[in-house]
Write a structure and sequence with these properties.
There is one protein chain. By secondary structure, the chain is mainly alpha-helical. Among the domains are: about 60 residues, no CATH class; about 60 residues, lambda repressor-like DNA-binding domains (434 Repressor (Amino-terminal Domain)); about 160 residues, Intergrase catalytic core (hpI Integrase, Chain A, Orthogonal Bundle), CATH 1.10.443.10. The chain contains 20 helices and 11 strands. It starts with a strand and ends with a helix.
């Protein structure tokens, strides 16, 4: 039977697992710290459970060493779990986030990691100047400083590890990343604050971003518990920032019409992508992953089976949809297919003009002028620029999907149907995202009863008690009027 000894706020649990070659008893140890808020009785009960669980792990040979640092365990977790189970884009996002996470808690041993460490990290993420995407502009004449240093701009860029085009951007006074600003400053022998100024220094990480770091840590530590490294997950009781209530950005019907009219002045390759996205509600990756073999003109349906994405290190790549319900057939309007036919004629002409230089080999619906895949962020940036110069409300590419969903709900489409068409895993996801549209539709539905306003009994036909007058009394009143 495992034993436990109280040491400060924690308990050292010991279990034996036989004897070594010299006849000495082999003992395994672990530490359990009761979560805050537990009563003495709850602690005693949970301690007994922890003793049993630890002894079972010892006897089954699944105990691991909690002395491993978080950073080292995270590397094991990424290799043995994340790399095999996660989508490429999610995995690369985890890699990027773990750099910052390891800077904060990577040095702490798993057995010593406490909820307080995580709370402190999350509070730090909410401070100013913490964003990794902050931009800097030059305070000095960088071009003159390079010239004064007696080197060419090309040589300076190579020495600083800054690409030529990026260096030209910095010299022109436009915004660059902290990494670029730091590299230029160091090569000039200056402090970052002397050579560059931080733009929008008060811009904070969003609550959702802070929570994304927590999800990674919690998932990692959850596996540490499952694999026997630690007895409990300290991330479970962490304090997270509240999520501000945010409505999905979307266009109303009049604004959507305006957008479609304005698109007639734009190149057809962009007009077709934006129009079709608005008329189908596809995610960006689903739109760009669509192939002609997934399009059925006769039955006016499309089938979502692929997505086209980008991730640093992986480049542009094809993946499966977000979840199992995202792979779906969709019946679309004749207008959507008319747009596709017009676009296909343009694409066919482009293919003929390019000849052997046409790059598409899989029959993608939406491509560049030469058949190359559309870089996802290039579509996002084009749409943002289009919205700005057109004077439309401040919406982004994903707002087209929100607009499509909101218009369906406003038109009375049942929520399960909306959810299925959007490819959501659960109807509750749809309900949460489009609460604004549902509330508006509910208000509209409430007004349906007004259709009967002209035949409903008027207030003066009722007694002060709220009871309806008898037919005889109503007839009497009518006879007097007559």
């Amino acid at each position: 039977m495992a034993t436990a000894v109280k040491r400060g706020d924690s308990y050292k649990i010991t279990a034996s697992c036989g004897y070594d070659i010299s006849g000495k008893q082999i003992r395994k140890h672990t530490t359990w710290t009761p979560p805050a808020g537990m009563t003495p009785r709850q602690i005693a009960k949970e301690l007994e459970r922890q003793k049993v669980l630890f002894e079972e792990r010892v006897n089954s040979g699944t105990t691991k060493d909690g002395n491993i640092r978080f950073e080292d365990f995270a590397a094991i977790w990424m290799k043995d779990f994340a790399q095999k189970q996660l989508k490429v884009k999610t995995y690369t996002g985890y890699e990027k986030s773990l750099v910052r996470i390891n800077q904060a808690i990577g040095h702490i041993k798993l057995k010593d990691l406490r909820t307080g460490h995580l709370n402190e990290f999350y509070r730090n993420l909410e401070e100013t100047g913490i964003r990794a995407d902050l931009k800097y502009t030059s305070k000095i004449d960088i071009g003159a400083a390079i010239e004064q240093a007696g080197v060419t701009r090309t040589a300076f860029g190579k020495a600083a590890g800054v690409a030529g085009n990026t260096l030209r951007i910095a010299i022109s006074g436009k915004r660059v990343s902290k990494e670029t600003a730091t590299a230029i400053s160091e090569e000039l022998g200056l402090k970052l604050s002397d050579a560059f100024r931080l733009e929008q220094p008060d811009r904070l990480l969003s609550s959702n971003t802070v929570r994304s770091y927590h999800r990674i840590i919690s998932s990692c530590l959850g596996k540490a518990v499952k694999w026997g490294y630690i007895p409990y997950n300290p991330a479970v009781n962490a304090e997270l920032p509240k999520m501000p209530k945010q409505e999905a950005a979307y266009l109303d019907e009049a604004e959507a019409r305006q957008l479609l009219v304005l698109l007639h002045q734009e190149p057809i390759k962009y007009r077709a992508m934006i129009t079709f996205d608005l008329l189908s509600g596809l995610r960006r990756g689903e739109l760009l992953g669509l192939r002609w073999q997934d399009v059925d003109f006769e039955n006016q349906t499309i089938t979502i089976v692929n997505t086209l994405n980008y991730a640093p290190g992986a480049g542009v790549y094809v993946d499966t949809p977000k979840n199992t319900t995202s792979a779906r057939p969709l019946k679309l309007s004749p207008t959507a297919f008319s747009m596709l036919l017009e676009y296909k004629r343009w694409q066919d002409d482009q293919r003929d003009a390019c000849g052997d230089y046409w790059k598409d080999t899989v029959g993608r619906v939406f491509t560049g002028d030469d058949g190359a895949p559309v870089f996802p962020d290039s579509l996002t940036k084009w749409f943002a620029a289009f919205v700005k110069r057109s004077g439309l409300p401040d919406v982004h590419i994903h707002s087209l999907r929100h607009t499509y969903a909101s218009l369906m709900i406003a038109d009375g489409t049942p929520l399960p149907v909306v959810s299925r068409r959007l490819g959501h895993a659960q109807v509750s996801t749809t309900a949460n995202i489009y609460a604004h549209a549902i509330a508006s539709a509910d208000e509209k539905a409430a007004q349906i009863a007004e259709k009967f306003a002209d035949v409903v009994t008027t207030p003066e036909d009722c007694q002060a008690t709220g009871k309806r007058k008898s037919p005889a009394k109503r007839r009497g009143r009518l006879e007097l009027v007559g």
